[in-house]
């Protein structure tokens, strides 16, 4: 941190949307993170290869800065890697909550993580672990239930997305699988 200028620190704390992320922008403003939100695709029918090429191109801009700090690329993958052509799209959480099947939810997390990692992305904006008690909230479909016990069961998606914690890991230490 002591080697960083104020502009570099500000840039590293900034996340921009994919549509404005270019190698030049990443380099000029030292951007730390890029987001592909819902519907944010590099092209119509964007294949995994298209997505990989895009992420790598943006990453080259980040790595061309003085300190060569890689950017973090995050994608909205709340019900599968739904912004990639022919990727698996799962029902939204409100539909999955009615299954009351935590092992199914973990498998969905596994599948989503596999498809996201296959496109060069290691960070997802998921899951939504919310208890929707007021249907006026516009994201109720991303909640597994209005019943907190069902929502708690569905948190099995987290080890699905992150991978299981190794047996030799210290308790309380954050873990994300590199697989």
Automatic annotation (TrEMBL):
Question: Which keywords fit this entry according to its UniProt record?
Answer: Glycosidase, Hydrolase, Signal
UniProt keyword Disulfide bond present: no
Q: Name one GO biological process term.
A: glucan catabolic process
Per the UniProt record, which residue ranges are transmembrane?
none
| EC category name | hydrolase
GO MF annotation terms: beta-glucosidase activity
Q: Answer whether the UniProt record assigns the keyword Heme to this protein.
A: no
Catalytic activity as recorded in UniProt: Hydrolysis of terminal, non-reducing beta-D-glucosyl residues with release of beta-D-glucose
A Pfam match is Glyco_hydro_3
Q: Which Gene3D superfamilies match?
A: Glycoside hydrolase, family 3, N-terminal domain
Q: Where is the Glycoside hydrolase family 3 N-terminal domain?
A: 5-164
Q: Any idea of its EC number?
A: 3.2.1.21
- Family, as annotated: Belongs to the glycosyl hydrolase 3 family.
Which PANTHER family would you find in this protein's record? LYSOSOMAL BETA GLUCOSIDASE, PERIPLASMIC BETA-GLUCOSIDASE-RELATED
Name listed for the protein in its UniProt record? beta-glucosidase
Provenance organism: Gossypium tomentosum (Hawaiian cotton)
